[in-house]
Amino acid sequence: MVSPTPSYKSTLQRAMSRGQLLTRPAQLVPYEADGLGYKRYPVELVAIPADVEELQSLLKVLKETNAPFVIRGAGTSLSGGPVAAQGGIIIHLSKLRKIEEINPRDRFALVQSGVVLNELEAALEPHGLYYPPDPSSGLSCTLGGNVATNAGGIHCFRYGVTGNYILGLEAILLDGSIVQFGGPAGGRGDWREDWKRLFVGSEGTLGVFTRFWLRLIARPEKVWTFRAMYPDINSASEAIRQLARHPSYPAAIEFMDPRSIDMVENSPMSVGLPRNAYMILTEIDGPPELVDARVGPIAQLLRNCGSDDVSYSDQANQRQALWKARKAQGGLLGQVSPDFVVQDAVIPKSRLNEILNFIYEKADAAGIAVTTIMHAGDGNLHPDFLFDQNKPGELEKVEQIGKELMKKVSEIGGTLSGEHGIGNDKAAYMASHLGPLGQAIQMAIPRPFNTRSQLNPMKVFPERRYA
Amino acid sequence: MSGATIEALELKSQMDDPLRACVHCGLCLEVCPTYKLTGEEGNSPRGRLHLWRSIDEKRLPEDDDTDFYTSECVGCLACESVCPANVPYAHLLEKERLRQYERGRSKTDWKVRLAGRAVKQPSLFNLALTPARLLRRSNLLPHPMLFPGKPPVMESSAAYAKRLMAQKQPDGPTVALLTGCLMEALFREINFATIRVLIENNVRVLIPDSQGCCGAFHEHTGMPGTDKLFENNRTAFRGINVDRVVTNSAGCGLALSKALQNKPKVQDIFGFLGELGPKQRPRQEGTQKVYVDLPCHLVHGQKVEGIPPNVLNATGYDWELAPCAKDCCGSGGVYNIQKPENAREILKRKSDFLNHLPSGVQPILATANHVCMMQWHTARAFIKSPFQVKHIIQLLDPAL
Amino acid sequence: MTSLTSRRATDPRCFNHFLDPVDMIGCFPAEASMAEINQLAAEHDLYFPLACDPVRSVREHVASLEYAPESTRFGPYVDNVPGMNWKLPGGQLVRIGEQVVKSTTGYDLLRFLLHSGERYGSAQDYVLRLRPLSHERYAGIFTGTPECLQALVEAIVCSSWSHWINCLNWVVSAEDAPFLECYGACLTGEGGHFIDYFSGLAKEHHTSFEPIAENPICPLPAFTIKTTPSQALTLASQCKEALGGHARILSALGVVLMYPEIPINDKQLRELHSRTTMVGGHLFGTAIQPYESSPKETPWIESILNDWRQL
Fold it and tell me: Could you tell me if A348 and A301 lie in one domain?
């Protein structure tokens, strides 16, 4: 851990008059971890700036502190992003939550980086406008975190991920200056290069986000949800393939493996699903004139692929019931296991069967329980490995499986993360995924912005250490 | 492809060690009134669980700060409603507060402690507050939390129920009514209205004499003694033959349902009336409009969807749910006495809609818990135009 | 391009040429023409939607525009090109991006480099995202007063029909008053629904709708303006006044494709530049010199290029 300059607390105090500085153990301990609760990193100080102006004055003095620092939104990340991996300071943007403008004419929203996704969603609804990225942490996660990790969600198969909706962003750089890349028009603005493209998905390593211009679209008028159960992976796989290229462009295609279904069915959240089955959930949306007529063909497609158990509905409560097992899955992990790791690989869909078998074989051989769900349209796979860190050797086993899985994913043309980001959880796999040349060109990007890796060290690339 | 390993795990962590059931997902942050107020992780349900677990695992010493965060929780339980891992937060909070109290770390002040002791003796408590009822009746009790009302001074709810039963002779289902401590001692008119509505709907109302405090007060503050209070009510309510035990205070209802464990079934008065289909009050023509607020301990504690629409329609008023109806008003039992600044700020944000109503609307803020009513009444400090606070049962009262 | 031949690269991770019909994705040489790509894709009932001119290569498309007419439905080039084989300034070939559509692995060099001209090296191959071919199409033209047409555009983009319309373009030319062209593809049997919707909407907004048989031809523009939807029509009309020729506006996106008769001069360029950058937009295309780098970004660019040159 880097030793900060002893007087840095008073340095920060000078820069903050309205916000809060947290310095005592009980104030800091809750900031040890993000959504990946089992990995804890001690924090030395937390600053909660009251507004953008205070954040800017804080950043002006941070260089003098010689302390590494990390920006945190709601801390719902699943990749160990907003944690103090190298100690130091966390800046918590929980007060930057103003929705500054909703512009129906040019269909954009101007929001501060601490705005919570669902709050934006609620503010847009009366305007008939829609911001599609919908990570399952939407209830709490902030736009800042979404942009930092280029978050996705269930509906990004058709609608795309966060990066597809960023028209512009404002950030404070380490030199204390505020820059605006793009704006309502979504272009480059007065810059030669399109810098916002590098900042989206940069996981808080290039600058500190303050505002975003988000592209909005019309809300889908009507939605149909389908659930189909398949007796084997081949028929489920075929359903995924056919849905993904069906010209009705399903908004979502979700997959749940029999182990996940077993977990749900063994719990109080049981919905009466058959055991040893694979579940496909899909949604189509659009104007009623179009989608209502597509219901029959989609149901038929699902049956033709080998399901004799297809349910569908356009009613909110019934749709919720169809989603229930899938939505319950994540929380149940906490009830069946003290700790778990979620992977976020993206694979070519044609290799699903092979990868699932790989996961099962490795996990079963190590005696580690695993459940797998997948944003199947995108090939974005979430195997959840369950373990107990108090049992010697279990965490190591899970880490070993993760390493082997990631190697395999790279080999077959997949990638390490689809929507969670690399953080420090997957940073160790970057070198082998990118290769020496690929990694070298990547490492050139943070250099001009964050030369000494004072901002969010040890994330994305483990070599990025503050010294 | 069977998941043998998972079946073997069962739901063990939650049963063995609820502190470790939290998956640290953070979905609870944005429903937590104190997190929204302070923006501090430690002041969120996830943060508090993390602190308690750290203390439990001896990674963090208990100190004034850990005490502070535990005491900051309003206890609204909105976090339980969104928790995907079903962490039994209420249970853990009560345990922590009790532990704090027993170790002398609780900052509960002497007046609250005194009240906690007093409510254990309902008859004495009632007697002691006779002058308060009298003063309130005469509108002479200028405490900011005391909403206007005309509580009967001498006749008890039990006596009234007996008298009205004899008069009207209902022959429908039989219920036992929990009359409560503060409700009976200070806001007795609400109990009377409840009795009138039930009997008008042909319900037989019994009020067991031996019933006592539900224990909610002690759960909120961490004061010991709930076990004894629970036991007392088990004896009181299991000794009679009724179809339901009904409560007209969401908080008391939650505590009583924990005590009775469905023997007999405890139900909020409005859920019960909703099933029955209550008598319709005449249509209220005019500019009054009812904004319905939902007590946390009804929706998040008792996990009831809300007040049934047929009940609200039966009031005869135009009504709609208050904005953010499922969010806490800041009352939290005695939270508004223990943490007045927080409570005030929470209510200020929640009640702001009353400042932006269409002109000419005369708002009635209606809810289903007397402590929420007390809290809402304090909103007069920052709401520019007049508004009334009512218990929904009062809007159904045939004597109205 | 004769076939999807395999290419040996300096970086063993570089993409080989391929077409994956399951993931609807393929890697093609930068010089491949859109016609060649779409011919290969059509064998699997797929197509690349952002093609304007079939005889021009992907490289020429990427150099000319960031948004094609079908971007209205499928998004800009950056969202339809998940990967590239890239030749660095030092000559090494390196893989940029992925062959899967969804990725948040590392810095997004792909979107940063795609339209960067040759300032950081150049693309050798592109990984393109393909879409299912629909066999039924619809197309038509709306005419009316600009105010009524404007209201009609608003109505369309604010309804969920907008998600199913491939192109909704203003056409601004010297000969005619501005009109709207609207076309796309749909599921078999759905064309009638679209025509009914458009006809009803036209009536409602006091405009007229005329179905047409063929999609309008939309060649590569001289340059494009990226601005806000509300500013696009005014800017396009003024440009057409000054430069002659015609313009097409992707109305939902605020993108103007310019086909001027005379080249834009420096003064006009400066004026247009300042009006678009004010709202966070920009100018782009083969007829536009890249902007000078700003003093703020110059050291960033130099730092990145220096690092890359040393590899």
Answer: yes
Give how far A134 is from chain C: nearest CA, Å.
14
Q: For chain A, how are helix, strand and coil distributed in percent, rounded to 5?
A: 35, 20, 40
Please give the order of strands across the beta sheet that includes A20-22: A20-22, A45-48, A89-92, A69-72
CATH of the domain at B232: 3.40.50
Answering whether pTM is above 0.90, one says: yes
Together in a domain, B307 and B269: no
**pLDDT in the model for residue A246:** 94
- Domain that includes residue B67, residue range: 4-102
Query: Using CB atoms and an 8 Å cut-off, which of residues 89-128 of chain A contact chain B?
Result: 92, 94-95, 116, 118-119
Residue A438 lies in a domain: no
- Mutation target among A70, A112, A140 for the B interface, most CBs of B within 10 A: A140
Check CB contact under 8 Å for A185 and C231.
Answer: yes
Are A388 and A252 contained in the same domain? yes
**Domains held by chain A: number:** 3
Question: A135-173: per-residue pLDDT in tens?
Answer: 999 999 999 999 999 999 999 999 999 999 999 999 999
CATH architecture of the domain with range C136-211:
2-Layer Sandwich (3.30)
Locate A75 and state its tokens.
């801390």
What letter represents residue A222's amino acid? K
| Number of domains chain B is built from | 3
Closest by CA to C144, choosing from C223, C213, C208, is C208
Q: Is A324 on the interface with C (CB under 8 A)?
A: no
Distance to chain C for A320, nearest Cα, Å: 22
Residues A80 and A152 in one domain: no
Phi, psi of A48 (to 5 degrees): -115, 90
Q: Contact, A309 vs A281, CB < 8 A?
A: no
Give the pLDDT confidence of C169-208 residue by residue, as tens digits.
999 997 778 999 999 999 999 999 999 999 999 999 999 9
CATH topology of domain C18-132: 3.30.465
Q: Do A344 and A380 contact (CB within 8 A), yes or no?
A: yes
Q: Are A400 and A363 in contact (CB under 8 A)?
A: no
Same domain membership, residue B149 and residue B98: no
Query: What ipTM does the predicted assembly reach?
Result: 0.96
> Cα separation of A448 and A454, whole Å?
12
Residue A41 burial (C-beta neighbours within 10 Å; 0-12, 13-18, 19+): buried
Percent pLDDT > 90 in chain A is: 90
Encoding tokens for residue A347?
A: 């694979």
- In the predicted structure, residue B112 carries a pLDDT above the cut 80: yes
In a domain? residue A57: yes
Say which residues have a Cβ less than 8 Å from residue C217's Cβ, sequence separation at least 6. none
Contact A139 B83 (CB under 8 A): no
Whether C213 and C197 have beta carbons less than 8 Å apart is answered as no
- Tell me if chain C has a CB within 8 Å of the CB of A250: no
B347 shares a domain with B320: yes
Q: Is the pLDDT score of C1 beyond 70?
A: no
Residue A416 lies in a domain: no
Identify the domain containing residue A321 by its residue range: 222-411
Q: Contact C283/C290 with Cβ under 8 angstroms?
A: no
Q: Which residue matches tokens 């079939």?
A: C54
